[in-house]
Design brief:
Structural class of chain A: mainly alpha
CATH class of chain B: Mainly Alpha
Strand content of chain B: under 5%
Shape of chain A: flat
Structural class of chain B: mainly alpha
CATH class of the largest domain in chain A: Mainly Alpha
Shape of chain B: globular
CATH superfamily of chain B: MetI-like
Oligomer: heterodimer
CATH architecture of chain B: Orthogonal Bundle
CATH architecture of the largest domain in chain A: Orthogonal Bundle
Largest interface: A-B, 99 and 92 residues
Distance between the termini of chain B: 41 Å
Chain lengths: 315, 291
């Protein structure tokens, strides 16, 4: 009796119940139930989506994964492959890494480490936040007007500018604000004492940034950049605007530099086109293509999130 | 010292690039929009539907489509996102929270074409056509639910941040008065973070209006659409109309002012989302100043 009451009073629920006069907290119970329902409906739909896609594409993945990854787009679903889409998505990723990452991190370093508290700085800051909220189709219009039309002589005069160069540049511009915002957050988390110690021993600002601030903020910056890469690889709307296609692709388009100026396609475009095809077999092929895209995108996301959680815990 | 100055200018250049990008967006949109507005037959802006290839540019059709999809999306995303946020911020134990948050972030990373496919192949037949057996396979309702699912993690994440920024002292004061958990959450934490919750809601709307691929895949009507307020029918939003105009094997095809109308719709979309984002930003700043 004595022992039982001791274990009972040690539980916070019991303490709460005693304080509240032992009444059953009906409102609290239903509120909690409601919240749990919201959480589980969301997670349940996510699980359903993954199940729907994997089970839909399983026929293709289990029987002819090799052919599917290396094959070319075709009229019949039974023989269609996605190699051209993987190629386009690969090059888009290269452009984003090579252009958006250095420019975005550079801008973040300026805003966090160099910029004075001036009107110009505030304006740039607000401007970047607004850019991050511009819908992706609008970036497609920008890419079309600038890279496809105005800079056609660079991006691909033979293909009317509708090339993977235009697509890669457009998506690099699209994720640039996200790279800047996430990198700036990582830089802001660096303690000021680290900078002051550097200045105290006579280091210049660039020396402090290069050898103290950047290494400390590195994992945070990497997380943000990988997340924005994943975002770029999954975007379809801007690619439609800059003229991605699933027809008239050159047969031999490989990974050479010259092939950059040819017409292109990418994974999200293949999924979009196939999803609308009524012919038999294309639903399965679409689901299989989605599984391939999800493996790439979700792997990048998961790695980035785990990396961040690990470093957050360490501090 | 020369090197220091050079590096400083280099970084300033990268930061200033964002202003150049903004200016280019506004200029390209404005140029073609001007051509469209000055040359279009104004009566075609108020006709029976959106058929750019037949020179019918009824903007009501696209607005109605966007409003319907956004409405359905927010009916889905607001309760799910807010509920998940309150649960994560107030109820979940740290361990549960650490497990659930990354899953929500993964949901946020799913490409929109994938949600479009899911909306078309599962949401439409399994949910929408069961609600209404006369619903078409391609319909605005399924697209709206898909967009809602896409927006849910965004709403949840901003709302949770807002509630997390409420000082613990407020909660403790409430418990000290003998308030229950539910009273503390509903009467103390939610009112204290209301600006942030409003911001989450507005940003969700902005994101839903700008979402393209889910609607382009699941709502059908790629050739054009008659004016309709029926969510169980095919339809078109501003974004999907742009995607379908630009689709096909060549960049932009069509007769007359089709090409310019693309930029006209883009301009409206740009201004609308900019307005919403600025309003939301104001609410977010209010939370930051308060605590």
């Amino acid at each position: 009796m004595n022992a039982a009451s001791r274990t009972l009073t040690s539980s916070p629920e019991i303490v709460r119940a005693r304080l509240q006069g032992r009444r059953f907290d009906a409102a609290g119970f239903f509120f909690r139930l409601l919240l749990l329902a919201a959480m589980f409906v969301t997670l349940g739909l996510l699980a359903l989506l993954l199940f729907d896609v994997v089970s839909g594409g399983w026929g293709v993945i289990s029987t002819r994964l090799g052919d599917f990854l290396t094959g070319k787009l075709g009229i019949t679903a039974a023989r269609a492959g996605i190699s051209q889409g993987l190629r386009g998505t690969f090059f888009i990723g290269v452009f984003v890494v090579a252009i958006a990452f250095p420019l975005g991190v550079g801008a973040a370093i300026y805003l966090e480490e160099y910029a004075p508290h001036s009107r110009l700085t505030r304006f740039i800051d607000v401007n970047i936040r607004n850019l991050a909220g511009v819908p992706s189709v609008v970036y497609g219009l920008l890419g079309f007007a600038i890279f496809v039309k105005a800079l056609r002589f660079v991006t691909g005069p033979e293909s009317n500018g509708a090339t993977v160069i235009s697509a890669g540049l457009t998506l690099a511009v699209l994720v640039l604000p996200i790279v800047i915002i996430t990198s700036a957050e990582a830089l802001r988390a660096v303690p000021d004492s680290l900078r002051e110690a550097g200045f105290g021993v006579g280091a210049t600002r660039w020396e402090v940034v290069r050898s103290h601030v950047l290494p400390y903020a590195g994992p945070g910056i990497l997380t943000g950049t990988v997340l924005s890469l994943a975002r770029a690889l999954g975007e379809a709307a801007p690619l439609i605007l800059v003229g991605a296609t699933t027809g008239y692709l050159s047969e031999g388009a490989g990974y050479s530099l010259a092939s950059l100026q040819e017409r292109f396609t990418a994974m999200p475009i293949i999924i979009y086109t196939w999803a609308g095809r009524p012919q038999p077999g294309f639903q399965e092929a679409t689901a299989a293509a989605i599984v391939v895209l999800l493996v790439v995108v979700l792997l990048a996301n998961t790695v980035a999130i785990l990396l961040r959680n690990r470093y957050e815990k360490r501090r | 010292m020369r090197k220091e100055a050079l590096i400083r200018w280099l970084f300033l250049g990268t930061a200033a690039l964002s202003i150049v990008i903004s200016a280019l967006i506004v200029l390209t949109l404005a140029r073609e929009t001007f051509t469209f507005v000055t040359q279009v037959d104004l009566s075609s802006l108020w006709s029976e539907g959106w058929f750019p290839r037949r020179d019918l540019y009824d903007i009501r059709t696209l607005f109605a489509g966007s409003v319907l999809v956004t409405l359905v999306a927010m009916v889905v995303a607001a309760p799910l996102g807010m509920g998940a946020a309150v649960y994560l911020a107030e109820y979940a134990r740290p361990r549960v929270r650490r497990a659930l948050k990354p899953i929500l972030e993964i949901l946020a990373g799913i490409p929109s074409v994938v949600l479009g496919f899911f909306a078309l192949t599962w949401i439409s037949p399994e949910i929408v056509q069961r609600m209404n057996d006369e619903a078409a396979l391609f319909n605005l309702m399924a697209a709206g639910i898909g967009v809602g699912l896409l927006v849910t993690p965004l709403v949840a994440s901003i709302a949770e941040d807002a509630m997390k920024s409420v000082p613990t002292a407020l909660r403790e004061a409430s418990y000290g008065m003998g308030a229950r958990k539910v009273t503390t959450a509903v009467r103390v934490v939610i009112p204290a973070s209301i600006s942030g919750l409003v911001a989450a809601f507005i940003l969700g709307i902005s994101r839903a209006i700008g979402e393209t691929m889910v609607v382009a895949i699941a709502a059908g009507a790629s050739g054009g659409s008659l004016f309709s307020m029926n969510v169980f029918e095919r339809g078109q939003t501003m974004t999907a109309a742009m995607a379908s105009m630009a689709g096909g094997t060549d960049a932009v095809k069509g007769a007359g002012l089709t090409f310019q109308s693309l930029f006209f719709v883009g301009m409206m979309l740009f201004l609308l989302t900019l307005l919403l984002n600025m309003v939301a930003g104001r609410f977010v700043r209010r939370v930051r100043q308060k605590y």
